[in-house]
Amino acid sequence: MVTKSLLLSLAIAASASASESFVNVYFGNGCFFHQQHSIVTKFEKLLLQRSASDITAVSAYAGGDSSPNDLCYHNKDGVGDYGKLGHAEVVEFSVPNDRLKDAAKVFFEDFTQLTPGQWTRQDVFDLGPEYRALVGIPGGISGHYFEAIEEANVAVHNLDLREGLGGDDDTIDTGVVWIMDSEDFPVYQAEVCLQFSDDNPAFSEPYSEKYHSLNGILVEEGLLKNTTCPTNYIC
Q1: What is the pLDDT of residue 20?
Q2: Which DSSP letter does residue 182 get?
Q3: What range does the record give for the signal peptide (predicted)?
């Protein structure tokens, strides 16, 4: 006979196993509007076949000094300005451990070749450290997740992966990607009004209404929460 305590133990073990099979990571390379759309459409929907309510990609800020408060987009009062605190625009999402290499391939394939062996981001109009290329994984360059990132990189463009120390320089035209330890450099969700937005019209047509509707869905699911940030220059 299976006792209640045994069933509880099995349930706890199953829950622990399930939580260990996914890892939260973040990618950044230029404006997070483009990066979020790329991760949602090319990885979460296309490769993982996730439904709208299962989407996890959230625009955020990461890679700078830790903060006890919300980080904010540029605003007239300068409140919590992510750029001034050394952060970059990123997108955090949940990845099955055995699909991390696939996710990283989507990221690396987004770079554009300038000359043989020289790569840059597609977003060439947004300049500065806020738009640098970075990957955030638990343990960073010394952790076991780095192997999947490195393998994907070699398979695509073989860019220059370097350990990020926080507040790092812009990477445009250099082929450098900063590898961050997401435990030391956590993410801070960007404002709700900046989620699932259209990219720069110089790079793409407006995204679909179905894509824009993910904003409300993720708010309803509790994955997106309102911040204390003041009105910014975009919203």
Answers
A1: 58
A2: T
A3: 1-18
Residue 171 in any domain: the answer is yes
With pLDDT > 90 as the criterion, what percentage of the chain qualifies?
82
- H-state helical runs in the chain: 4-20, 32-38, 100-108, 146-156, 209-212, 214-221
CB contact at 8 A, 176 and 159: yes
Q: Does residue 32 contact residue 197 with C-beta atoms inside 8 Å?
A: no
Interacting residues of 2 by C-beta distance below 8 A, sequence separation 6+: none
- Cβ count near 74 (within 10 Å): 14
Tell me how far apart the alpha carbons of residues 107 and 20 are, in angstroms, rounded to a whole number: 23
Alpha-carbon dihedral 155, 120, 110, 170, rounded to 10 degrees = 110
- The pTM for the full model equals 0.89
Contact predicate 166/86, CB 8 Å: yes
pLDDT in tens, 2-28: 333 333 333 333 433 444 599 999 999
Helix count and strand count (H, E) for the chain: 6, 9
DSSP letter, residue 225: -
Domain CATH code at residue 162: 3.30.1060.10
Residue 166: band (very low, low, confident or very high) from pLDDT cuts 50, 70, 90: very high
- How many separate domains does the chain show? 1
In contact, 91 and 32? CB cutoff 8 Å: yes
